[in-house]
Amino acid sequence: APEKVKKVKILSSYVSNITAIWTLPSHTQCLHGLQVCLSPRDGNQSDCTIQSTHGHAARTFTELTPCSHYIVNVTTISSSGEYSEAVAVSVVSAPPITRVNNPRAFATSSSSIQLDWEAPTEGTECLKEYSVCQKIVNTPSNDCVNHAVDLETTLNYTDVEICTNYSFILGARGERGEGVYTTVWAMISLTPGNVSSLETSSVGPSVLVTWTPPSYRPLCVVHYEICWGSSTDDQNCTVQENSVTTFDITELTPCVEYVVGAKREDRCSLDKKLILQGGIFTSRKLFYIDSPEPARNLAFSFANATSIVAEWEAPSDQSDCLDYYQACLVVAGKTVCVNQTRDITTAYIPDLRSCSSYAVNVTAWTDGARSSVLSEQVNTTAAVPDVPNHLHVNYAETDLLNVQWRVPTVNYECVEWYIVCWRSSQDGTEGCLNTTNLEQVITGLTPCANYSINITAVGAIGISRASLMSAHTRLQDMAWIIMHSFAHKAMTWFIMHSFAHKTMAWFIMHSFARKAMVLSVRILS
């Protein structure tokens, strides 16, 4: 078979004619010619012609059915009459479609947008429909529809969110494909409400201003304007974007009263131009002071087991601008604070724990600003511990008792160790042990005996009252007693007769042991 042509493509396509071109194979010396055919895509009829390889590598088909799909195929013919594999390309008898004309989108009410356009200037002979996609700007989702060409070139969108930017993408679609898409934008712009909850706080050398967006139409805010000044004639202003509701004001004069205000700027569409319309100011007075210097020379003029008195000196600078002092410490996991006016530089702090160390922190405050922390350590004095709690026997054996207790309710921090003492009610034997634990095993006791036990807590300056109880050791098992008695008798007899009658002694001892074992098993069962 001869070599086939390398490529077939469409040079031009119009309503009634198509021009196809191709590239000849590398070797054409043995070719008789080319067969070029045009056939409908959905039919078998073909318009074929034989062309010489020496002519133009192109053919124009005329008098075609408008807006129809065709297939062009080219085959080489050898001098011996053989045909190569056909090379085909699809084509539509239609001109290219241009973009739609004069698209525009505009608000027609507070909740609807109208989109309209005009048909393309060229390629409308085979126009099938329009494609229209609508979405909120900077969101991924599209809402697309196909709009028939026999309908008016207008679409109305209702239930549109106010002050939200929408994009509309339009394109014309014909038998030959889609034209170039065009995008237009529209927004329903309304006046928002006023800002609210304007707050200020001094942090370091600046003032932090915060506010709440309008509750009415917040999406319609373009940006916020913040102004401040010591008077209406001396003001500074700045702008923050609508997603930011804070601003730091810097370079203020300490101990000066300022007025701070914030207002929203909304947007309205007027003659297709975006203009700004000022809102209403929400203002707040602020007595500004830079972060004050810390208090000085913190000391403690009094400290006992449950309370302290802290004393300090005022800062070396800006003390007249202070509002109050705050002295804080942590008691049993909770922060306890005492506030004092700027004229009082002492603080009495009660209800503390004895034998404890506390870090006392003193801070100087103004309206919203605070100094660094002045901190010192103080220890409460020792006290005699209270009686230990909940003394009880954890378990008892024949010769030992395990006793446990809990720390005293009052002044448990002052406990250094515990004294555990016991006394037998039968023979009067007694003993004592020192321990830092909350339990003690008392050993070497008599079985089935009653003991009195007392626990005292020892502190640096005294001993607590005793916590008292009675306890019993356990009775030995009867089987063990009998077996032990038999074994003892057998061992005694064996020792006495082992030298004279070794074999008989072993037999008798073994007999004693067996009797003891049998008897003990019967008793136990």
TrEMBL record:
Domain of life of the native organism: Eukaryota
Query: What organism, scientifically named, is this protein from?
Result: Timema californicum (California timema)
Q: What is this protein called?
A: (California timema) hypothetical protein
CDD domains noted in UniProt: FN3
Q: Which PROSITE patterns match?
A: FN3
UniProt keywords, alphabetically: Repeat
| Domain Fibronectin type-III residue range list | 1-97, 191-292, 294-386, 387-477
